[in-house]
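User: Hey, my collaborator sent me this sequence without any context and asked if I could get a structure. I don't really work with proteins. Can you help?
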Amino acid sequence: MPVPQLGRVMSVIKDPMVSDHFTLEIPMVPTGAGDVEPLMIHCQSTVKPGVTVDEVLVALFGHTFVYAGRKVFNHDLNVTFVENARGTIMRTIEKWDELIRGSQTQHGRFKNGGSGGGNGYAADGKLKIYDNPGDLVLEYTLYNMWPANLPEAALDGTASNLITHSVGFKFDWYDRTGGYSS
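Assistant: No problem. I've predicted the 3D structure and written it out in structure-token form, which is a compact way to encode the shape of the chain:
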């Protein structure tokens, strides 16, 4: 195959995907519908989670063959949120944390609700990636997300710095559920 010419390269690449065209939505936040939009709008950065496929080694007759094993999800999603003057993100994540396990009792909801039909503490998230005109290119559903780590917030009386929260979420698995030719 010959080396591609510049015109062919440009017709295939069109525009590169850029890292700031995304949203992270959690449509059914356990803390209430009023918390859905702030979590989406205040999301400054995140990552698209990865997976690992284990290898299965088979040694026969002096040769080793490598086969695909199980697919393993890392179960971690780190998200950085920009805080507003009202502390919306901190309040939302702290409320969600209290639903998971109460600070004084260590009691909380079941992950996916209980036999009484109540809401659970986990919620599905949607990571959406867009192209330059704003059309949805890739959509991933992260199943059973919940905040597992809320680090301390840095406060500094000598400067006026932006306050962000780097929240560590857990999830069970993800699938590509939308976008171009999904």
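In plain terms: The mean pLDDT is 90. You can pass these tokens on to your collaborator as they are.
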